[in-house]
UniProtKB/TrEMBL annotation:
One of its GO terms (biological process) is potassium ion transport. SUPFAM superfamilies: FAD-binding/transporter-associated domain-like (SSF56176), TrkA C-terminal domain-like (SSF116726). It comes from Pseudomonas syringae pv. spinaceae. The keyword Ribosomal protein does not apply. Keywords: Antiport, Cell inner membrane, Cell membrane, Ion transport, Membrane, Potassium, Transport. It holds the Pfam family TrkA_C. It comes from the Bacteria. Residues 41-123 form the RCK C-terminal domain. The lineage of its organism: Bacteria, Pseudomonadati, Pseudomonadota, Gammaproteobacteria, Pseudomonadales. This is K antiporter NhaP2. One of its GO terms (cellular component) is plasma membrane.
Amino acid sequence: MYFNLAFFIVLVSLLLQGTSLPWMAKLLKVTVPPDPAPISRAALEVHATSEWELFVYRLGAEKWCIGAALRELKMPEGTRIAALFRGQQLLHPSGSTTLEVGDLLCVIGHEHDLPALGKLFSQAPQRGLDLRFFGDFVLEGDARLGEVAALYGLKLDGIDPGMPLSQFIVQKNRGEPVVGDQIEWNGTIWTVAVMDGNKIQKVGVKFPEGTRPGPGLFL
């Protein structure tokens, strides 16, 4: 009986923790950056059961592959670059062809190739202001530190839990904030993402490699 009771308590605890993450994320207005995706995709009906698709990627200036030759790209096994458009011109790419900003790449592959292709080529569709470069998540500047700490498992160490995140950054930064200002707190990097006059409106948070919170925050 005691074992069953203990098991029930642990189970309820785990369920509450999992379901509270989305609620806390909504409370803090956490923004999750959009996943990279091709700007266009279409099925290639080679045969009745064909799963081949044509993916179209536009290369943005922030992509590391700009200036690289095609032979330097680590393409997913089985994928092929079918065509390259530069402006209004259709090029026939070879291994020595170098990529430029604005190039349109047409790639043949399967759906399971999308994550790897996204890392190479994607410029995710704009959704208002693109905040992906400020961290793994973006929070409102008026989020309370106590709520932020509870959501991400951070230690306050005597800091006022009612203090807004924006005020905390101003105090740590010791100066007038500007977009791009960064502070370190609990091993995470906090970056000013959006300003409204002299007020911090949005803040990005970047977690150390391998410690980003799990999928509960994406709901």
